[in-house]
Specification:
Structural class: mainly beta
Number of strands: 14
Helix content: under 10%
Mean pLDDT: 82
Number of domains: 2
Largest sheet: 4 strands, antiparallel
Shape: elongated
Radius of gyration: 32 Å
Strand content: over 45%
Distance between the termini: 80 Å
Low-confidence stretches: none
Number of helices: 1
Order of helices and strands: EEHEEEEEEEEEEEE
Length: 248
């Protein structure tokens, strides 16, 4: 290449940009090439907004990941590697779903509150504790309950189904951390297990919030908000499903 022959002022954007629409869970990539003055290449590129880690103004949603140069006399060819989420390519959401069973023990010992004489707590109130009620033989008395299947017994262990969704995605907005522990339904949420306790006659403990709840959010800022851009974040959300009420 003859470094004295080019069209337009340097730095000069050359043809040959390539775009790679990557798989779910990965960033889109692109590349461009500039002809620059060798001795002032970095400053010349910065003057037109091309700096490592900066938003690339000519392609919304992409940032400059890397720059490499090859000398051509007094000039240089600089290859610019870009990455981000191109407009129209979705959020590149990667999802894991965990469905599980947890043992719920129901049919507890029937109990009563007993005053413990001569003991008080820090507030001066009488301490109370729960102890099993016993019959005249000194044996614990159980409460007979019915499970959703209709069978009655004094004590049961039942597998109560649960489900967790873990999503990893990219966003150009700073994640809202105040949403943690609030009712948030993940996009295209999977079906949830059937509710077992509609006809259960025992005590229930209510959950709040119920339904889909954002239990954890882990953001990682990949690129900062520079040159007027919003920045790029990779976020992992963990969302659990809670029934409105379950056996106490």
């Amino acid at each position: 290449m003859n470094e004295n022959i080019h069209h337009g002022a340097l730095p000069l954007l050359l043809e040959g940009q390539t775009v790679n629409d990557t798989d779910v869970g990965q960033l889109d990539t692109s590349s461009v090439q500039y002809l620059v003055n060798f001795s002032t290449w970095k400053a010349d590129l910065a003057a037109v907004g091309v700096t490592k880690g900066a938003a690339y103004a000519a392609e919304v949603g992409l940032w400059v990941k890397d720059m490499s140069r090859k000398r051509e006399g007094d000039n240089a060819l600089v290859d610019i590697a870009l990455e981000g989420v191109l407009a129209g390519n979705g959020d590149k959401r990667q999802r894991r779903i965990s469905a599980f069973g947890s043992v719920v023990s129901i049919g507890p010992i029937q109990d009563t509150q007993v005053i413990v004489e001569g003991q008080t707590d820090e507030a001066g109130d009488t301490v109370r504790r729960r102890v099993p009620k016993v019959n005249n033989l000194g044996e614990p008395v159980y409460v007979t309950i019915s499970v959703p299947g209709g069978a009655a017994a004094s004590r049961w262990n039942i597998n109560d189904a649960g489900i967790t969704v873990i999503d990893t995605y990219y966003t150009t907005a700073a994640p809202d951390m105040t949403e943690v522990s609030t009712a948030i339904t993940p996009p295209s949420a999977p079906d949830v297990p059937a509710y077992l306790w509609g006809s259960y006659g025992g005590d229930l403990r209510s959950n709040f919030p119920a339904g889909w709840v954002l239990s954890n959010r882990e953001p990682e800022q990949l690129y900062g908000a520079v040159l007027g851009g919003a920045g790029l974040w990779r976020v992992t959300d963990t969302t659990d499903y809670y029934f409105a009420a379950v056996p106490d």
